[in-house]
Batch of 2 targets.
Target 1
Amino acid sequence: MTDSSDSVSIDMETFALGGKEYLVRTHHGTVSVAVFGDQDKPALVTYPDLALNHTSCFQGLFSCPEASSLLLHNFCIYHINPPGHELGAAPIGPDDLMPSVDDLADQIVEVLNFFGLGAVMCMGVTAGAYILTLFAMKYRQRVLGLILVSPLCRAPSWTEWLLNKVMSNLLYFYGMCGVVKELLLKRYFSKEVRGGVRVPETDVVQACRRLLDERESKNIWQFLEAMNGRPDLSEGLRKLHCRSLIFVGENSPFHSEALHMTSKLDRRYSALVEVQACGSMVTEEQPHAMLIPIEYFLTGYGLYRATLSVSPRSPLSPCCISPELLSPESMGLKLKPIKTRISMEV
């Protein structure tokens, strides 16, 4: 890790024992980075969705024992939180410049430089998936692979833009009110887990609702404004030659976005996993559905579960994409390149 008088680290008391939170000052504001694992191992960088942090967006996945034997065995995890999204964050000052999505992507490379990291594996959810995809397009030599959950790649549609503007105005004038929380929960989760009149909310939704109450509304507002002004990345996706694994819940409001993104990526390096009866946040709603596809994805980099006698300090130099990654039968899941899916539906 590089020395810097502009950066400070503090011990972390939540999410997992042995973790540490670093507050890294960048040219576009301070970023909270929670680090878990042996920093001599290859790096896995995560970025959460709007109004979430690493606890509320990735805890379901990383708390699975199978994920621990696969991910924590092979990687040191660097959870990057959007500015002001960490637990206990203070409101962003009125004099602080509002970052654009380009600024947020540039923050990531400053974080990597602070920790002395080279090329990294990336995992992001929805808005976080967009930021990491933009980062991969701007800094191709710093990204080994992308694991994206319900990703965005196009500019907002008029429907999304209008909905975001409604949320933005409510956040600015009323804070994290009931309407904003309901809109966010619909963004994250399927109707099955959100419950209804006769069916109660599941524990994961209740926990997320409580965590939303702790968010600073002005900080969320800034991230939402940045995402509502995002440009379309579609044309540059074909030039992205790092391997990409995309998950999307079939009930996600961003399902069509994930299909569009998969159609624009080079089919030799990408695959799509559609998770049935699930919303956008597969990492929390159905994390076990991610484990087998991720395991096959990582075998192309020479990474395996802890039970296998393979060194976790792999140089991570991937060869061409393995045939197993594109084989639905071997995955035991609905895994298909997008053109295959369309031809089946016609």
Target 2
Amino acid sequence: MSKDASAKPKSLLVHLLAGGSAGLVEACTCHPLDTIKVRMQLSRSGNRNPQGKKLSFVGVGVRIVKNESFFALYKGLGAVVSGIVPKMAIRFSSFEMYKGWMADSKGKVSTGATFLAGLAAGVTEAVAVVTPMDVVKIRLQAQLHSMADPLDIPKYRNAGHAAYTIVREEGVSALYKGVTLTALRQATNQAVNFTAYQELKKYFKKLQNLDELPSYQHLILGGVSGAMGPMSNAPIDTIKTRIQKSNSTKSGWHRFTEVTTEIIRKEGYGAFYKGLTPRLLRVAPGQAITFMVYEKVRVWIELVGAHWKKDPVVM
């Protein structure tokens, strides 16, 4: 076996482990903002206070805490954690794999190839992990029960119970409601995200004549690149959320047209951008944390691997 051939699986394993670690840290840090975003997207009349004034994302968060306890902001976290570790692992490893396939004979990857690799990675993670995870998460987040009251028993008790109940009542296919829109959202997100991050990283490494950027720069570049996706596909995300919350058994296209026309007719075009602020506040810092942790863990794993190869422990 050639040296290159043997090195490739190790490289993918590094991306798999670093991506999974980054996903775990990001999920635990940013989940409350996602819960607020989902509540805003699911509200057809707008979230309002007793005086009828529209609530901001902060107001929605405060109301959740007041009515359902602070821990309600973490509804659906189990579904996210159980899904986000493999999601991030698949995202980074598949991106590197697709990018490697599109590299030229010298190993260089064009900006266009990076964009296509991001598109493919987004579709891969959407089908493999994100869609079922989103369906379970949204069902949990949509429940308005108080987590401080043990007598207030919701329909879905946790991620595992929600997945079981959905499959039992609606069939396995229900876990893939909105898969096309989810794939479209993830594909555009990761295409923009990876392309912006890779190009910014390349520019700043060249500008500062560095082989590796410091962690705080990975944090900043990840935040900037992470904010670009949500701004381009907010309507897709809102429609997807409405479809996945519903237990309708109608065809995917019928649900899409029904939800879209209902939003336009009853709420106006602005409703497609409901939850954009908390989504930006969720995704941008989430991607900042993800890229920073990913890059740091990747370097650690490579250092440990190099040390192990140089001085293996004799049993």
